[in-house]
Amino acid sequence: QVQLVESGGGLVQDGGSLRLSCAASGSVFSIETMGWYRQAPGKQRDLVAVITNSGTINYADSVKGRFAIARDNAKNTVYLQMNSLKPEDTAVYYCNVVITGSIVNYEYWGQGTQVTVSS
User: Fold this and answer.
1) What average pLDDT does the segment 104-119 reach?
2) Distance CA 74, CA 57 (A)
3) Distance (Å, rounded) from C-alpha 91 to C-alpha 80?
4) Half-sphere exposure of 50 (CA within 13 A, CB side)
5) Fewer CB within 10 Å: C terminus or N terminus of the chain?
6) pLDDT mean over 54-79
7) Measured in whole angstroms, how far is the alpha carbon of residue 110 from the centre of its chain?
8) pLDDT tens across 6-57, in order?
9) What is the C-alpha separation between 2 and 97, in angstroms, rounded?
10) What are the beta bridge partners of residue 81?
C-alpha cells in the first residue's frame, strides 16, 4: 500500500502563487509517474501536470507557462508550483502516483487539497 499526503492548498488572490506538495510513503519501490489532477465543482477530474521517473513532463494547455511540476525521487515527493493563478484554477487538486508492478501498474490518489483563487 501507498499513502499520499498532500499539503499547500489555500486561498489566494488573482495573480497570486501557491505551492503544492505530495509525499508518498509505504510500498514506493518503483514509482513511475507522479502528477496532479484537479476537479472543479460539477466538472470531471482533469490532468494538470505529470512527471515520469525519467523526467518527462506533460502539462495541461491551460497551465503551461504558469505552473511547474518537480519531483524529488529521494523523498518520493512531487511539487506543483502555481504562479499567476486565475479564478478558473479554483478546484480540488489531487496528487496521483503510478507504481510499476511485476504484472500490472498500481494507481494511488491523495485525499485532495482545495485551491481557491479569488477575483
Assistant:
1) 95
2) 18
3) 14
4) 13
5) N
6) 96
7) 9
8) 999 999 999 999 999 999 998 888 899 999 999 999 999 999 999 999 999 9
9) 9
10) 19, 68
